[in-house]
Predict the structure.
Amino acid sequence: MQCEIIKLEAVQRSFTAKIQGLGNLNYWERLRRLSMYSLQRRRERYTIILVWKIYNNLAPNSMNINFRETSRYGTTCIRPLGSSKYTSVNNLRFNSFASRASALYNVVPPAIKSLLTLTTFKPALDAFLNEFPDTPPTPGYTGQNRNSMLEWAGGTCL
């Protein structure tokens, strides 16, 4: 998966390097200067927004994501558990979109998830995401982790 992320980021990395005055900066610095998310962070952001829309009945729940309310964490998603005797089947389920989307949604603070409109949810989500470095895998640079919000926020790494 890291290899695919590096290949996808290469497109944006190449484009931002051609912007006048930014060619001497590394990719991470160009993202900060341009106030842009990496493609990896953008995908995770859109995933969180989709799950919020599903919960608020603004998008169909075609992945059968299940929600529960807790007093401590607010609305959370129930991640599908592996129940097969075959490890490969359990890994497929654990790495499925529904499982990853649930895990990402669960790292968002309850106060943000409880916002009632998309126009208030998105800026609050962006403020939360901006609390964490956006250092996607980049050839020649060593990041602290694989840059997933699951790792930055201390959640389960996928």
